[in-house]
Amino acid sequence: MLAMFFWAFVIGGLVCVAGQLLMDFGKLTPGHTLSLLVVIGAVLDGFGLYEPFMDFAGAGATVPITSFGNSLVHGALQEAEQHGLVGVLTGMFEVTSSGISAAIIFGFIGALLFKPKG
Predict the structure, then answer these.
(1) What is this structure's pTM?
(2) Contact between residue 67 and residue 99 where contact means Cβ atoms under 8 Å apart
(3) How far is residue 8's CA from residue 91's CA, in Å, rounded to a whole number?
(4) Best CA proximity match to 69, nearest among 38, 95, 44
(5) Which residues does 24 contact at the CB level (< 8 Å), separation at least 6?
(6) Is the confidence at residue 35, as pLDDT, over 70?
(7) pLDDT band at 118 (very low <50, low <70, confident <90, very high)
(8) What domain of life does the UniProt record list for this protein's source (predicted)?
(9) Any alpha helices (H) in the chain, and if so which ranges?
Protein backbone atom coordinates (compact mmCIF):
# COMPACT_ATOMS: atom_id res chain seq x y z
CA MET A 1 0.00 0.00 0.00
CA LEU A 2 2.89 2.35 0.71
CA ALA A 3 4.15 1.85 -2.84
CA MET A 4 0.74 2.94 -4.16
CA PHE A 5 0.97 6.23 -2.26
CA PHE A 6 4.57 6.71 -3.36
CA TRP A 7 3.81 6.27 -7.07
CA ALA A 8 0.71 8.46 -6.89
CA PHE A 9 2.81 11.23 -5.32
CA VAL A 10 5.69 10.84 -7.77
CA ILE A 11 3.58 10.60 -10.94
CA GLY A 12 1.25 13.43 -9.93
CA GLY A 13 4.28 15.55 -9.08
CA LEU A 14 5.92 14.78 -12.41
CA VAL A 15 2.81 15.88 -14.29
CA CYS A 16 2.90 19.15 -12.36
CA VAL A 17 6.64 19.55 -12.99
CA ALA A 18 6.07 19.00 -16.71
CA GLY A 19 3.44 21.74 -16.70
CA GLN A 20 5.73 24.11 -14.82
CA LEU A 21 8.61 23.41 -17.21
CA LEU A 22 6.32 24.15 -20.17
CA MET A 23 5.52 27.53 -18.65
CA ASP A 24 9.09 28.36 -17.61
CA PHE A 25 11.14 27.13 -20.54
CA GLY A 26 8.51 26.77 -23.25
CA LYS A 27 7.27 30.29 -22.52
CA LEU A 28 3.68 29.02 -22.64
CA THR A 29 0.96 30.87 -20.79
CA PRO A 30 -0.90 29.03 -18.04
CA GLY A 31 -3.92 28.73 -20.35
CA HIS A 32 -1.84 27.19 -23.13
CA THR A 33 -0.20 24.80 -20.67
CA LEU A 34 -3.57 23.78 -19.24
CA SER A 35 -4.96 23.16 -22.73
CA LEU A 36 -1.91 21.17 -23.76
CA LEU A 37 -2.13 18.90 -20.70
CA VAL A 38 -5.85 18.30 -21.34
CA VAL A 39 -5.09 17.41 -24.97
CA ILE A 40 -2.26 15.07 -23.90
CA GLY A 41 -4.66 13.24 -21.56
CA ALA A 42 -7.26 13.05 -24.33
CA VAL A 43 -4.79 11.70 -26.90
CA LEU A 44 -3.43 9.12 -24.46
CA ASP A 45 -6.96 7.90 -23.77
CA GLY A 46 -7.74 7.84 -27.50
CA PHE A 47 -4.83 5.45 -28.00
CA GLY A 48 -5.86 3.39 -24.96
CA LEU A 49 -2.78 4.34 -22.93
CA TYR A 50 -4.34 6.38 -20.13
CA GLU A 51 -6.14 3.45 -18.49
CA PRO A 52 -2.90 1.50 -17.88
CA PHE A 53 -1.31 4.76 -16.72
CA MET A 54 -4.12 5.21 -14.15
CA ASP A 55 -3.78 1.60 -13.03
CA PHE A 56 -0.10 2.20 -12.28
CA ALA A 57 -0.20 5.76 -10.94
CA GLY A 58 -3.57 5.73 -9.15
CA ALA A 59 -4.47 9.18 -7.85
CA GLY A 60 -1.30 10.54 -9.43
CA ALA A 61 -3.01 10.11 -12.80
CA THR A 62 -6.60 10.88 -11.81
CA VAL A 63 -6.05 14.16 -9.97
CA PRO A 64 -3.99 16.24 -12.47
CA ILE A 65 -5.60 18.07 -15.38
CA THR A 66 -4.62 15.32 -17.81
CA SER A 67 -7.39 13.26 -16.27
CA PHE A 68 -9.95 15.81 -17.48
CA GLY A 69 -8.89 15.20 -21.07
CA ASN A 70 -9.07 11.48 -20.42
CA SER A 71 -12.61 11.84 -19.05
CA LEU A 72 -13.76 13.86 -22.06
CA VAL A 73 -12.57 11.30 -24.59
CA HIS A 74 -13.53 8.28 -22.50
CA GLY A 75 -17.10 9.53 -22.07
CA ALA A 76 -17.39 10.48 -25.74
CA LEU A 77 -16.15 7.11 -26.97
CA GLN A 78 -18.30 5.18 -24.53
CA GLU A 79 -21.49 7.00 -25.51
CA ALA A 80 -20.59 6.95 -29.23
CA GLU A 81 -20.69 3.16 -29.13
CA GLN A 82 -24.26 3.26 -27.83
CA HIS A 83 -25.75 6.35 -29.47
CA GLY A 84 -23.57 7.19 -32.46
CA LEU A 85 -22.59 10.75 -33.27
CA VAL A 86 -25.00 12.29 -30.76
CA GLY A 87 -23.34 10.20 -28.05
CA VAL A 88 -20.01 11.88 -28.74
CA LEU A 89 -21.43 15.22 -27.63
CA THR A 90 -23.57 13.97 -24.75
CA GLY A 91 -20.90 11.60 -23.44
CA MET A 92 -18.37 14.35 -22.85
CA PHE A 93 -20.82 16.38 -20.80
CA GLU A 94 -22.27 13.43 -18.92
CA VAL A 95 -18.91 12.29 -17.56
CA THR A 96 -17.45 15.71 -16.74
CA SER A 97 -20.57 17.60 -15.63
CA SER A 98 -20.22 16.82 -11.92
CA GLY A 99 -16.64 18.11 -11.75
CA ILE A 100 -17.45 21.26 -13.70
CA SER A 101 -20.57 21.89 -11.62
CA ALA A 102 -18.61 21.45 -8.39
CA ALA A 103 -15.96 23.92 -9.58
CA ILE A 104 -18.61 26.53 -10.41
CA ILE A 105 -20.49 26.05 -7.13
CA PHE A 106 -17.38 26.12 -4.93
CA GLY A 107 -16.02 29.11 -6.85
CA PHE A 108 -19.28 30.96 -6.27
CA ILE A 109 -19.31 30.09 -2.56
CA GLY A 110 -15.69 31.19 -2.27
CA ALA A 111 -16.54 34.50 -3.93
CA LEU A 112 -19.39 35.01 -1.46
CA LEU A 113 -17.25 34.23 1.58
CA PHE A 114 -14.12 36.13 0.56
CA LYS A 115 -13.51 39.38 -1.24
CA PRO A 116 -12.32 38.50 -4.76
CA LYS A 117 -9.53 40.61 -6.17
CA GLY A 118 -9.94 41.62 -9.70
Answers:
(1) 0.76
(2) no
(3) 27
(4) 38
(5) none
(6) yes
(7) low
(8) Bacteria
(9) 2-24, 30-46, 50-57, 59-62, 66-83, 85-113
